[in-house]
Design brief:
Elements: H1 2-35, E1 47-48, H2 53-67, H3 74-77, E2 80-82, E3 95-97, H4 99-108, E4 116-122, H5 127-140, E5 145-151, H6 156-165, E6 172-177, H7 186-192, H8 195-198, H9 203-206, E7 212-216, E8 220-222, H10 226-230, E9 242-246, H11 256-259, E10 270-278, H12 279-284, H13 298-309, H14 317-327, E11 332-334, H15 353-358, E12 362-364, H16 376-386, E13 389-391, E14 412-414
Parallel strand pairs: 2-3, 4-5, 4-7, 5-6, 9-11
Antiparallel strand pairs: 1-13, 7-10, 8-12, 9-10, 13-14
Helix pairs in contact: 1-4
This protein binds 2-acetamido-2-deoxy-beta-D-glucopyranose (4 copies).
One 2-acetamido-2-deoxy-beta-D-glucopyranose binds near residues 237, 238, 240 and 329.
């Protein structure tokens, strides 16, 4: 009886091994078949050091050896995620074997990866702040990001320089635009609006091919993946087109309910510093309004609205958004304050219940608190992210994972918080 048992165990072991071998051979042939034409990024190497400048050199430098696995000096500087059919790393390779990842990758290859679109408007002295915001998005995010950066012309070269030095990350893509108005009656817009303050209102009209967009102010910091707020788009019901957080939790210190001379959304208004938009729906919708009895489209409502309320608005485009959603409340998805956490939530005692329970998801350092000493905690988080180092990985096409757009197990994040 005992001998019988041993034979069974032996057979099982042999069976398992041959299965493993067959599987690995299959995976190799799939790999080779897919290797050539895919056009997938060939190597991902990341190394952010404070300031971003040095990162460029290292990223470019380490991309070389990855293309020629076999050099013995590669272990010194970076780690490698290596594919080997026998599930063992060759002696000269340090790092992680990607056996399962490669198999998994094949099964997912057919699904196109959705990009998260993130827009920001940067004017004046906001370069460093904007880059820190983008960095916080890159550090935590899972899906690839597409940045839409609207900036004054004199900032373009600086943005290009730094973002190109990060491009070895291969988890993002960016487009840089001048401050722009819709081509129809651009001149009239320019006369009426302060260009930088109102740019975001025109995003649905300028980015015509983009379905959905997350707009954020430059003084935003992501403390968790952008994917998380992006997933709220799927929670919109059929009438909702945009999502924002309330301007205040506590009406006694609210601004709109005490001072506004125009209509506003809900009890205390909404804050537009973090605004999630399904722009397809915004472009399609006809909006109720208090100017005519007919409903107007997004492109037609802004100008008459501004003309009517020009003398009564204080916070520019945010006020216009409040007026629009006052008349169309069914179109707004209101997310809790932890997605747009501002000093107002803790200045006069803590009044963001959700953040107390679940934490802060997106930090909004308005009133300049990243740069003065009024709110040391806000400033500390800003500086930690600004100085954060991200050190990574080399991944040739064989080791590249579409799951995470890199070798996930090899991504090291060192942020000094
Ligand atoms: C970056 O965006 C362009 C279009 O703007 C696209 O063709 C290209 O494939 C993108 N790159 C990556 C790595 O996704
Ligand atoms: C602007 O504010 C004034 C003073 O509060 C008010 O009388 C007027 O009706 C407001 N204008 C509009 C268009 O609401
Ligand atoms: C935005 O709305 C359009 C039209 O309803 C829909 O087809 C699309 O899937 C929505 N986008 C997202 C990201 O949910
Ligand atoms: C969608 O949600 C909003 C806000 O909760 C609500 O006012 C609206 O009636 C809902 N629309 C539908 C079709 O249920």
């Amino acid at each position: 009886m005992r001998r019988y048992l041993r034979v069974v165990v032996l057979c099982l072991a042999c069976g398992f091994c041959s299965l493993l071998y067959a599987f690995s051979q299959l995976a190799v042939s799939l790999e080779e078949g897919a290797g050539g034409g895919g056009g997938k990024p060939q190597a991902a190497a990341a190394s952010w050091l404070a300031g971003g400048g040095r990162g460029a050199g290292r990223g470019a430098g380490s991309a070389g050896p990855a293309a020629h696995p076999g050099r013995s000096d590669r272990c010194k500087d970076f780690c490698l995620c290596y594919w080997n059919p026998y599930w063992m790393l060759p002696s000269d390779v340090c790092g992680m074997n990607c056996f399962w990842e490669a198999a998994f990758r094949y099964s997912l290859k057919m699904q196109p990866v959705e990009r998260v679109h993130l827009a920001v408007v940067a004017c004046g002295e906001r370069l460093e702040e904007t880059l820190t915001m983008l960095k916080s998005a890159l550090i935590f995010s899972i899906k690839p990001l597409q940045f839409h950066i609207f900036a004054e012309d004199q900032l373009h070269d600086s943005f290009k320089g730094i973002l190109n030095s990060w491009s070895f990350l291969q988890t993002f893509n960016y487009s840089l635009y001048p401050i722009t108005f819709p081509s129809e009656n651009a001149a009239e817009w320019k006369k009426l609006f302060k260009p930088c303050a109102s740019q975001r209102l025109f995003l649905p009209l300028i980015l015509k091919e983009v379905d959905s967009l997350l707009y954020v102010d430059t003084d935003i910091l992501f403390l968790r993946p952008v994917d998380d707020i992006w997933s709220l788009l799927k929670k919109f019901n059929s009438t909702q087109i945009a999502a924002m957080a309330p301007e205040h939790e506590e009406p006694r210190i609210g601004w709109y309910n005490r001072f506004a001379r125009h209509p506003y959304y809900g009890k205390t208004g909404v804050n537009s510093g973090v605004m999630l938009m399904n722009m397809t729906r915004m472009r399609r919708k006809y909006f109720k309004n208090d100017m005519t009895t007919v409903r107007l489209r997004w492109g037609d409502i802004l100008m008459p609205l501004l003309k009517k309320y020009k003398l009564n608005i204080t916070w520019g485009d945010q006020d216009l958004l409040n007026i629009i959603f006052f008349h169309n409340p069914e179109s707004l998805f209101v997310f809790p304050c932890q997605w747009n956490y501002r000093p107002d939530h803790c200045i006069y005692g803590s009044n963001c219940q959700e953040a107390e329970e679940e934490g802060i998801f997106i930090l909004h350092g308005n009133r300049g608190v990243y740069h003065d000493d009024k709110q040391p905690a806000f400033r500390a988080i800003y500086e930690a992210l600004r100085n954060s180092k991200k050190k990574t990985t080399v991944c040739s096409s064989h080791y590249y994972s579409p799951l995470s757009h890199s070798c996930p197990s090899m991504l090291f994040i060192h942020s000094e918080m």
